[in-house]
């Protein structure tokens, strides 16, 4: 019922977006963002929703209200409702960027934008003493302004999920757990924080894929936790934002350079 009702609201919105495009030539798209503990959490859930509810319900609505053919109505849905790829959120779900993009492309679903963001993570050592030390580090991020869901990868690759850091911390000694990722948006230029790491490598993966595939023209750098960061990593806000943007720009330029060098090497190899 919730999905049907919300999809009907989306259908009315898409109807208006189609009208705007017809009148102005401007394409405006709504980008849906999966998130831990949200109604849609993963790429699989997003695609299932898109195919089961969104495509049939919204395209049917457009045919009835605007008189579009089925083909044009379906294309209007693909154009108007896309995916927001929040790197932090997909990293939390342990999803590989290349696999997600390939699956979306197969389904003809577009990525409307990428939100450049990083989460906290830690590989869990076998020692109880070392795990207690990690728990102490994680506890410095357990503030009450935001929820900081924890997703744990276990030895059998199953995922255990906790709604917030305080709920997860007592379970850090679980012998089946091998890795923790927590929904705390840390600065993207931060690779490590003492004993903890960030999911920064996932950002670098998506940037390399973006350089190769150009699947979207829209990037947002999304770190909003400046006021609640532990004092040791809190810096002047203007300097922090400048450092965020500089780091992203440098990595975009590096990815383009590496791609160009790779193409040159491939061409030389074929010529030889």
Description:
The chain has one domain (2-222). 51% of the residues lie in helices and 18% in strands. The protein is built from 9 helices and 10 strands. The strands form 2 sheets. A 6-stranded antiparallel sheet has the order 6-5-7-4-9-8. A 4-stranded parallel sheet has the order 1-2-3-10. A hairpin with a 4-residue loop joins strand 5 and strand 6 (159-162). The longest helix has 35 residues, at 237-271. Residues 268-272 have low confidence and may be disordered.
List keywords for this structure.
272 residues, alpha/beta, 4-stranded parallel sheet
User: Spatial order of the strands in the main sheet?
Assistant: 6-5-7-4-9-8
Total of domains: 1
Strand content: 15-25%
Distance between the termini: 62 Å
The total of beta strands comes to: 10
Q: Rounded to an integer, what's the Rg over CA atoms?
A: 21 Å
Give me the number of helical elements. 9
Elements, N to C (H/E): HEHHEHHEEHEEHEEEHEH
Q: What general outline do the C-alpha atoms trace?
A: globular
Average pLDDT reading: 94
Biggest sheet features: 6 strands, antiparallel
**Structural class estimated from helices and strands:** alpha/beta
Spans of 5+ residues with little confidence (pLDDT < 50)? 268-272
> Which bin fits the share of residues in helices?
40-55%
